[in-house]
Amino acid sequence: MAGHRVAHATLKGPSVVKELIIGLALGLAAGGLWKMHHWNEQRKTRAFYDLLERGEINVIAAEE
């Protein structure tokens, strides 16, 4: 029984390469989400100005 060894996980310091890859992946994911949001807002703005130019809507309040 004296010869039994228990395998323990050895704690190491931070892996610089692993942290760089994780940071890059998270940054690209967040950037992609931000660009999709920006493109959606651009599409809404473009649609608004197209309707305004065609005269289908106006921004002047109707007088009562």
Biggest sheet, open or closed, and with what strands and sense? none
The helix/strand series, from N terminus to C terminus, equals H
Radius of gyration: 29 Å
Total count of strands: 0
Which of globular, elongated, flat, extended, rod-shaped describes the shape?
A: rod-shaped
The N- and C-terminal alpha carbons lie at a distance of 96 Å
Uncertain spans: none
What class would the helix/strand composition place it in?
mainly alpha
**Share of helical residues:** 55-70%
What count of helical segments does DSSP give?
Answer: 1
Oligomer: single chain
Tell me, rounded to a whole number, the average pLDDT: 89
Strand content: under 5%
Describe this structure as you would to a colleague.
By secondary structure, the chain is an all-alpha fold. It has one helix at residues 16-54. The longest helix has 39 residues, at 16-54. The protein is rod-shaped, with a radius of gyration of 29 Å. It is found in: Mitochondrion inner membrane. Keywords: Membrane, Mitochondrion, Mitochondrion inner membrane, Transmembrane, Transmembrane helix.
